[in-house]
Amino acid sequence: KILIANTPMDADKIKVFGSKIKVDTVTKIAELEEAEKQKMKEKVEKIAKHGCNVFINRQLIYNYPEQLFSMKGIMAIEHADFEGVERLSLVTGGDIASTFDCPGETKLGYCDLIEEIMIGEDRLLKFSGVAVGEACTIVLRGATQTILDEAERSLHDALCVIQQTVKDQRSINGGGAAEMLMADAVSKLAARTPGKEAIAIEAFSRALRALPNIIADNGGFDSSDLVAQLRAKHTEGDHNYGLDMVNGKIEDMTKLGITESYRVKKQVLTAAAEAAEMIVRV
Hints:
The chain has 282 residues and is an alpha/beta fold.
């Protein structure tokens, strides 16, 4: 049971301007310190009444309150950064508390296991079995900051594609199969269209066919040969065929399980068409 908080765990300070306190004996100083300790005991008691066995605070937890938590069998974790606290609240299902007067109104978070792990030279706390079972942390490591930045961008792009696929689970064949099929359909439309509009439509068809060429070039294969074979297959009606960049040949994408998100592909084509239209207008 986890209580997540953003609260100062030292003596509560009240700003009073223009006032002075004079103490004439050591006993009075001891009484002041004892009063501060008593206030901290009361605060820890309030936290313990929530029924938690783990207390995570965004701010520092000093030695004395840490001792009090230890005596009550509560693990105290301090100085969690703001994003970390927000994410813990989300994945464990708990609220972020700042006051502790009403234990029944604060929702505790839950997880099965908290353990300290080492990644390289860094010590990290790992929360397993959280309330939101799909939550996870991805640790990226690289030799240079440039490599790390590139890895982060690539991972972000991949997660965005997955997010869009979850929202709209429709998919299309990858490997240039969809582009070739669309190019054939656009070419047929150009053949039926009279006037100069047919030229623009045919240009759009050529642009679609350029995408399989780019895929083959990026794979290090002869794009002219592969795209010619692919176009012949689609002319025969085998519209599931695309480019297999592992073996450098054309193959049935359905059998290989190579698919792309329909929503992402639609957005890419729409954005490209709008950009081309803007350039033509200028």
